[in-house]
């Protein structure tokens, strides 16, 4: 098994099929779809997420700890691939995803990376949010989209930090970057295979909502945030 693509999911019966369709295209483009397993880490869904995943041939990890980092780790715990990759359930992957990740990790001086994203709709507020993040992405080498690393390195650093209620993805890449520096390795952005990120949170919370959320994310990185935001922002009962 070459790849384990892990999808943390909570009540994603609506958008999960769209993501799985895009993964099927990327697997076919890779040329050996059987070398790529798809794992849905079902994080206490109350809808048909598990049934949708099973019907589409995905492996399902049932995660009962209501923390996004725990869902990511739970999926990785059953992964059989030599490379683990993570994508949000409301996204879509690029057809060249696995080809570009192979290209990136063929360089032994690369420890991990991300594909970056484009968005499924644009507005002034969304565009300004996107532009605001670009300098941080360029300077840090960290990005969103499909995040990937070798399974051995994931295990060596202990996966995602489950004490972080949000911004666990940023902390994860920071940890990988630190590990890589000890070996002369770096992060990479495989931007020729950008994922398409959903703007449904902008639809729900407004096109300018990310600016106050970013401040809350920084508080969490400094261990000063509260857990209420996680429930309000990710675990919405109405979804």
How would you explain this protein's 3D organization?
- The protein has a seven-stranded mixed sheet, sandwiched between helices. Strands 6-9 form a two-stranded parallel sheet.
- The chain is globular.
- The mean pLDDT is 89.
- Helix content is 43%, strand content 17%.
- The protein has a single domain (3-233), classed as Spore Coat Polysaccharide Biosynthesis Protein SpsA, Chain A.
- The longest helix has 17 residues, at 124-140.
- It is of the alpha/beta class and 239 residues long.
- The protein contains ten helices and nine strands.
Annotation keywords:
239 residues; alpha/beta; Spore Coat Polysaccharide Biosynthesis Protein SpsA, Chain A; seven-stranded mixed beta sheet; two-stranded parallel ribbon; 9 strands; 43% helix
Question: What would you say about this model in short?
Answer:
This protein has 239 residues and is of the alpha/beta class.
Write the layout of secondary structure elements.
Elements: E1 3-9, H1 16-30, E2 36-42, H2 49-55, E3 59-62, H3 68-77, E4 83-86, H4 97-105, E5 110-114, E6 117-119, H5 124-140, E7 147-150, H6 151-156, H7 168-181, E8 186-189, E9 195-197, H8 200-205, H9 210-221, H10 228-233
Parallel strand pairs: 1-2, 1-4, 2-3, 5-8, 6-9
Antiparallel strand pairs: 4-7, 5-7
